[in-house]
Automatic annotation (TrEMBL):
Gene3D superfamilies: RbsD-like domain. This is Fucose isomerase. Coiled coil: none annotated. Pfam families: RbsD_FucU. It comes from Laedolimicola ammoniilytica. One of its GO terms (molecular function) is isomerase activity.
Length: 146
């Protein structure tokens, strides 16, 4: 165990977060996301017993979001015609506001199929047990300044 590190961050996930460099991206995927097929060229980390919000909060405690892009946090846009509500997005915006002074302004949306294409280029994909739909989050890591 380590002091000051959220317990939800496994040794494998901490290693990946440490390995990531500036502008590398990581996807925190909901339970429906095709993590294994999208992650053929990425590191796939299984966190099946956890939801996206608690992982997002823990990750943002240890890595900064990229300050060189306007939207370093992106959500998968709901497909037109899908009768889906996304209240979890409000939770995400509250979480990011705790860790980045830009708050919800640094959160963007990516069209569903473009999100898949971008996820294929991510450094890592975290597969969660999140049951909310359209609950996928892509983060772009910033520079750690001490």
């Amino acid at each position: 165990m380590l002091k000051g590190i959220p317990k939800i961050l496994s040794p494998e996930l901490l290693k990946v977060l440490c390995e990531m460099g500036h502008s590398d991206r990581i996807v925190i995927a909901d339970g429906n996301f095709p993590a294994e097929s999208m992650g053929k060229d990425a590191i796939v980390i299984r966190c099946d017993g956890h939801g996206v919000p608690e992982l997002l909060d823990a990750i943002l405690q240890v890595i900064p979001l990229d300050t060189y892009v306007d939207k370093p946090m992106n959500l998968m846009e709901v497909m037109p015609g899908d009768p889906v509500k996304t209240p979890i997005w409000d939770t995400y915006k509250e979480i990011v506001a705790k860790h980045d002074e830009r708050g919800a302004a640094c959160v963007g949306n990516i069209e569903r199929f473009q999100f898949y294409e971008e996820a294929k280029k991510a450094y890592a994909i975290i597969a969660t047990g999140e049951s909310a739909v359209y609950a996928n989050v892509m983060l772009q890591k910033g520079v750690v300044i001490n």
